[in-house]
Amino acid sequence: MCNTPTGHSRQIDPRRELAGAAPAAVQVLDVLRFLAGQRGPVAAAVIARDLQLPRSSVYQHLRALQHLGYVVHLREERRYALGIAAFELSSGYLRQEPLARIGAHLLASLVDRLGENAHLAVLHGRDVLYLVEERAPHRPALVTDVGVRLPSHLTASGRAMLAMLPEAQLRALFPDDASLAERGERGPHTVSELRSVLDEVRRLGYGFEDGEVTEGIASVAVAVAERSGWPEAAVTVSFPSDAIPPARRPALATRIREFSDELARRLGAGPQSAPD
């Protein structure tokens, strides 16, 4: 929160203002966002409960969305799922690629300032998918090329994003030790070890790894959150392990956060906050 010179503070909540002007529209979008965040179809009662909306309103919104093709009603299961119109929206987003387009410009600026490789990644199931990579002069090529997927629990970007997920979503992704992909002797091998790593990421406010993806290469990452608080992407800088010692990596994370904040703003979300 930013304090005014008089000592008073006031933080505008855009969602609250929108809800006051167009409450039904905000509720409909909340329903769609909720369905998009589930691993499978859900009952209307669950939507009403988790969004704290009247059931009558939820059923009304679902009927409208179903009529327009954004929601499908699975009668036998008494559950609702996203429809083909919602898929068409997501396909349009992918065609326009705003995340990759905006991210590419910001990463180029970040690399110019730091002189180290940087990349932008998103969560894709248990993996991270690399969307953009910017290489610094005289730095080694990395395995994190565009389109490459790596186990999220091993990468700095993956850890930064996993640390932002709700507990239920984290359990769904990693229900047992067998869900952690093996990659030699590196990285956490049990769910308990992964939770310890993510606890440290939350404490520090950034993801990190050193030699767990590529020997001799370390990475520091800061997640970019959606308005809902879920991770949308992560901005990562990778460098030879001996180029930036551990004591200097918190300062590096602070510089990366400036760019992740700017990316969040341009995508329509607010800046990320460092932990206390």
Automatic annotation (TrEMBL):
PROSITE patterns: HTH_ICLR, ICLR_ED. InterPro entries: ArsR-like_HTH, GAF-like_dom_sf, HTH_MetabolicPath_Reg, Tscrpt_reg_IclR_C, Tscrpt_reg_IclR_N, WH-like_DNA-bd_sf, WH_DNA-bd_sf. Keywords: DNA-binding, Transcription, Transcription regulation. Residues 22-84 form the HTH iclR-type domain. Coiled coil: none annotated. Residues 85-269 form the IclR-ED domain. Pfam families: HTH_IclR (PF09339), IclR_C (PF01614). It comes from the Bacteria. The keyword DNA-binding applies. This is IclR family transcriptional regulator. It comes from Pseudolysinimonas kribbensis.
